[in-house]
Write a structure and sequence with these properties.
Elements: E1 4-10, H1 16-27, E2 32-34, E3 43-50, H2 57-61, E4 65-73, E5 75-77, E6 86-89, H3 97-105, E7 109-113, E8 122-123, E9 126-127, H4 128-133, E10 143-156, E11 159-166, H5 172-183, E12 187-197, E13 200-201, H6 208-216, E14 235-238, H7 244-248, E15 269-273, E16 279-286, E17 291-297, H8 301-309
């Protein structure tokens, strides 16, 4: 089984689920998951986790993201993007660029955002977009999101191209909608490209056809990001041979069991390797108990033995 993350450049027309299904066929294994839904019309970065890296899906979904979007002023749709049914449409002849800039930049920071009906969020076990397609609208609670940065790239009214960095759970089409509401003319999202998810960038992404070609050439490993590389900000420590059983079983271990030097700081996260330099797990140091406690296990003893036989 292959373990690691591939930075997919999702193309228009594919759902995130489509990408996973196609990759399963290309790679030849079922254990694959994506790290955050992109709408079919949206393109860009979609990190896909394979094998044991699927344990990272939630962690990567929680990371900050960057998008490039085109907001179309004067048009409101039921989906908050250009693909939806038009609800209202007005001319914006009296709107000037400075006013638009001021309102756009006013969304910097934290704000309460109401998720759109056309989204994959669930209410009573049913996805909102399923209810929306049935003509049912339910009340949604506003959720706190953070707009970390906005760079206005171009204003050619009624269109505004901008780059937005934001926290998890932020809907860019809802941001466009909300900006339009504040301007008094309405707006919808016309284009969306996700340019970054954590360390994964658009310029490094590969299309499905490119991945297919690399697989056929036997070069898939070249584009696979190893699990431990995603924790490169954590210090790496190695356990002494006689104590690796603690590690394989996910047990706590003491600083004296560590082969390599580590600075002991309360709450410090570390990458832990066995005596053969195999990455096994992420641990956290508990100063009160003077021990390292498991945070996320990736390989147990049997699984590591299987990997060594590959």
């Amino acid at each position: 089984m292959i373990h690691g993350v591939i930075n997919i450049h999702k193309e228009k027309g594919y759902t995130s689920h489509d990408v996973v299904a196609k990759l399963r066929g290309i790679v030849g294994q079922k254990k694959i998951g994506h790290t955050g839904t992109l709408d079919p019309d949206a393109t860009g970065v979609l990190p896909v986790c394979l094998g044991k890296a699927t344990k990272l899906c939630d962690m990567l979904t929680d990371k900050n993201k960057t998008y490039e979007t085109v907001m179309l002023l004067g048009k409101v749709t039921d989906t908050q993007d250009i693909s939806g049914t038009i609800i209202s449409e007005v001319t914006i002849n009296k709107l000037d660029e400075e006013t638009v800039k001021t309102v756009v930049m006013s969304f910097l920071g934290d704000y309460m955002q109401i998720p759109p009906m056309y989204s994959a969020l669930k209410v009573n076990g049913k996805k909102l977009y399923e209810l929306a397609r049935e003509g049912v609208e339910v009340e949604r609670k506003a959720r706190p999101v953070s707009i970390l940065d906005i760079q206005i790239k171009e204003i050619d009214l009624p269109r505004v191209r901008m780059e937005v960095s934001c926290s998890k759970g932020t809907y860019i089409r809802t941001l466009c909608h909300d900006i339009g509401q504040k301007l008094g003319c309405g707006a919808c999202m016309e284009e969306l490209i996700r340019t970054r998810v954590s360390r994964f960038k658009l310029e490094d992404g590969l299309t499905l056809s490119q991945v297919q070609a690399l697989k056929e050439a036997g070069e898939l490993e070249k584009i696979l990001v190893p699990i431990d590389e995603l924790f490169s900000e954590y210090e790496a420590i190695t356990l002494k041979e006689e104590f690796v059983s603690f590690l394989y079983n996910g047990n706590t271990f003491l600083p004296k069991h560590v082969k390599t030097y580590v600075q002991l700081v309360d709450g410090k996260m570390v990458r832990v390797y066995d005596d053969k330099s195999n990455f096994i797990a992420i641990y956290k140091f508990d100063k009160g108990k003077y021990s390292f406690k498991i945070e996320k296990m990736f390989f147990d003893r049997n699984e590591q033995a299987q990997e060594e036989k590959r």
